[in-house]
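Could you join me in thinking about how sequence relates to backbone shape in a protein? To get us started, please write out a protein record for me. Would you write everything just below, so we can both look at the same thing?
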Amino acid sequence: MIQEYGKPGLAEQHATRAIFFVGGFGAASWAPLVPLLKARLGIAEDVLGMLLLCIGIGSLLTMPLSGAAAVRLGCRRVLTAAGLVYGALLLALCTVSSFQLAIPLLLIFGATMGCIDVVVNIQAAIVEKAAGRRLMSGMHALWSVGGFAGAGLFGIWVGTFSLTPLASTGIAAAIMVLVTLAASRHHLLPYGGDAGGKLLALPKGIVTFVGIIACIAFLVEGAIMDWGGVFLTTVRHFDMALAGTGFTVFSAAMLTMRLLGDWTVQKLGQERVVIGGSLLAVAGFLFIIFAPTVVLLYLGFFFIGVGCANVVPVFFSLLGKQHVMPISLAVPAVSTLGYLGILMGPAAIGFIAHQTSLYAAFTLLAALVLLQTVIAAYVYRHIVE
């Protein structure tokens, strides 16, 4: 099928990056709408938490089936449709005032987000393999760039230009639609690999271990995002104005290393980057837990961001080199396990912190990253590069 359409080239690489940008931009553009949705619906925090869970449920329902959709319809059709629906749903969520309507909208929003995440990684794996060189880290960096752009532009439109949230969201939705259409034209792949006649993506063999690595990586990222500020304010007694600084340092380090990731992997090798990076992240957690000074504390967040940045991109690349599952099934299987980490992480950390302390919870995160290192070494022994 791939040979029939010709070998993906530079245009396909740019189109893939564009869709990664749309995915991150949409997610970041949704974040400022959450408190507005809460106010419009007049609901309490606990109800809002349950409502937001619909996004995760929608993603988990879609991810295992997205690979089969890409095979049957092609990445171009799936990503184009998902990107357009993604923008339209963002605008709808800015205006919805009915709790009963908000539930299906959030379910479909999460389903669309999960579909984009899976299918764009399938396209990225195919494009990278055709290019014969490292591209995946740079591709994933565009998701982070989209996230920074979406969060920053909303603040500029509302704060600087005094636009209404609806107008600002309309601009964001228009950007997502235009970028999606431009990528679809130049050039998303009209195929999506071969699923071997199967519909549902369930991990097996070495792909299961890659999924566990993704689960840990996303769990750690989600925990830093949701609990880093709480740790700084309640355990290290930082002012509330500085609550988000730890995650900012972490995010900046991760974005920088993903932008440099392809070059770094080419110079040092995938195994050194993953295992060395994981050990650096463990050191980062130790700095956060035991650092006697603020500088070392922030250095801990920096180390975690640097160490974790290229773990997921590297292993998505490796999925193209294993022979246990077709790439169109392996990617959604791993993505689903990874997303479980995002959902489980904040809740698990909260439970452990309540039973013991945040110190113990962050120590567990360090232990999980160390386990990730062991599993990564095992995977490298069984996937021939």
